[in-house]
Amino acid sequence: MIKATVHSYLLNFKQPAGTSRGVLRTKESFFLRIEDPTTPFAVGLGEVGVLRGLSVDDVPELESQLAWTAENIHLGLEVLYARNSAFPSIQFALEQAFSHLQHGFHHFETPFSRGAQGQAINGLIWMGTKHFMLDQIQRRLEEGFGTLKMKVGAISWADELALLKGIRERFSSRDLTLRVDANGAFSRSSIDPVLHELAALEVHSIEQPLPTTDRDGLSEVCAVSPIPVALDESLIGMFTKADKELLLDTVRPQYIILKPSFIGGWRGADEWIECAAARGIDWWATSALESTVGMNAIAQWTATKHLHTPQGLGTGSLYTNNIPGPLEVKKGELWTAGDVQTSWSLPESLQTFR
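^ thats the sequence. predicted structure below, dont judge the formating
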């Protein structure tokens, strides 16, 4: 008889990772655990990677919806996925858990899942004080990353620009790719000089330069920006294909950033890719600060796409108590180290192996 339970786990950041809009010290993840003795692995685990204050399903009803989903797990993946259309993080957890029942943690068969090939990722420079960001830059460079993504908007733009200039003085665009993630920090009136300053530094792209609410402004920026623009938070809450097509047709970004926990998991991301490809728009994937469980699911999916573009899958090192698993970052690449099925040390309440 199939049954499911819901568990929670509190991830602790190594150090405060914050902005003037708030400080993140912990990140709560929920896990959907399915038991079905008739399947190859008997137990399936999926992470509900909701991010408070940002996910569209960060609503009071989330936990009751999770409980309802567990109680009705017998309805199966297709029915439950459809009935969680407003809860994309639950949809992704369902995909993971039902896949786990059949394949274990080895969701997709690729050279990456076998530990034979790595995936290029960007080194993340988190927002904070100038000293904090400078320290991160130095660490990422020492770790061998060929692409750095710097989050901006926490301190003055002058200081952030100085940090970027300092990097570019040491490494040309041929030797090091720079990305900037603004998280909607700028306005129409302030963004133009920023874009030209970034272009002078040969920055690869800027993510979400304006707030999601200013769709007309984003459209204007994408049309005239001297560097490519990527949409990230703008994708949140676009539930139907028509919604997605309207956004892309209106704004016309050069890139979209896919966070499966925000957009309905693997199939939600695949629909975005289909819509983007039809319009000549490229993409890459990033995490939503999931634990190793969710990160493994995202990384195995991205590996099926045979991408060369560095992905945003390097956030696992942010935590002091991340769930130990087989993922390892080596010289700017994410690798599966060891047996993807057994190289786990799950908390007792999440234990999946008997």
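Residues 234 and 268 are 15 Å apart (CA to CA).
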